[in-house]
Specification:
Elements: H1 3-32, H2 39-50, H3 54-70, H4 78-96, H5 102-118, H6 122-138, H7 143-155, H8 159-179, H9 185-194
Length: 196
């Protein structure tokens, strides 16, 4: 999908179609998950729909989660991995919505923990932690609500996974520093050398 088509699709067509035809579009949207560039707009559309039709959104997300978990991680199935990444991102986005009741935020966290328990890989662990960090950086007051969950994920990582996670979080921090107005040139130069 070209950039000229993707922008109107992401911002106008998808948010309009998804609430009206979620069940009919489910398979097409699942195939669209192969394009990671669409994940953000798809997540936004699912989150917007969640406030109107929670049951349908949860059914689709849990169905995609179950389908992905049935496939072996060693199969190198791209749809499987990208589906899990999307489901993780969307549950975290649902958790982050201010209007969502506490019980629904708990559902989202339980889904994330279920994915982590059943798919304890570095890809899933880093996806969960990195996405949560991105949301809690926007609103740090929400961090205490999810701190125990993050600890339960991190405790189960092995030494190499912790090193990888530390690198992801360091890169995230350095990128944030670079993006600040008047960002630090020292960080920018180090990031260029390290390939951030």
């Amino acid at each position: 999908m070209s950039k000229n088509v993707r922008r109107p699709w992401n911002h106008y067509t998808l948010p309009m179609l998804l609430p009206l035809h979620l069940s009919q579009l489910g398979r097409l949207i699942r195939k669209m998950l192969l394009n990671v560039e669409l994940h953000k707009s798809l997540t936004e559309a699912f989150v917007a729909l969640y406030s109107k039709n929670k049951t349908s959104v949860l059914n689709i997300l849990t169905s995609w989660r179950e389908d992905a978990l049935k496939v072996s991680p060693s199969s190198n199935n791209k749809l499987r991995d990208k589906s899990l990444a999307f489901v993780i991102r969307t549950f975290i986005a649902i958790w982050h919505i201010e209007e969502v009741e506490h019980s629904n935020r708990t559902i989202a966290l339980n889904e994330l923990y279920y994915i982590f328990q059943n798919e304890n890989t570095i890809l899933v662990g880093i996806s969960i932690v990195d996405t949560i960090m991105a949301y809690t950086i926007q609103d740090s007051s929400r961090f205490t609500e999810i701190e125990d969950f993050l600890c339960s994920v991190i405790v189960e990582m092995n030494e190499q996974e912790l090193i990888d996670l530390a690198q992801v979080l360091s890169n995230h921090y350095l990128q944030e520093r670079i993006n600040l107005k008047g960002g630090d040139d020292v960080f920018a130069n180090k990031s260029e050398k390290n390939g951030v």
